[in-house]
Design a protein that fits this description.
Blueprint (H helix, E strand, L loop, with lengths): L3 H10 L3 H5 L3 H21 L2 H23 L1
Helix pairs in contact: 1-4, 3-4
């Protein structure tokens, strides 16, 4: 069984890594691709500091999801 806190930390650092660690590689790939797409689109539309806020919010959501997957 995967450790929930480790999964959350991994997914906060690299969205999708915690999901893959928890056992769902497909969901991990989807989270990683979504993070990249969100970053690209946000970079084209918003200023630099807003992109960082969007990235952090998404990383927190990915961490929460990874933690919930291990429970």
């Amino acid at each position: 069984m995967a450790n929930g806190i480790l999964a959350a930390i991994l997914s906060f650092l690299i969205p999708g890594l915690g999901q893959a660690y928890a056992g769902d590689i497909k969901k991990g790939i989807i989270f990683l691709v979504a993070a990249i797409v969100i970053w690209i689109i946000a970079s084209l539309i918003f200023r630099h500091w807003i992109v960082w806020i969007i990235d952090i919010v998404y990383a927190i959501y990915a961490a929460y999801d990874a933690y919930q997957m291990t429970q």
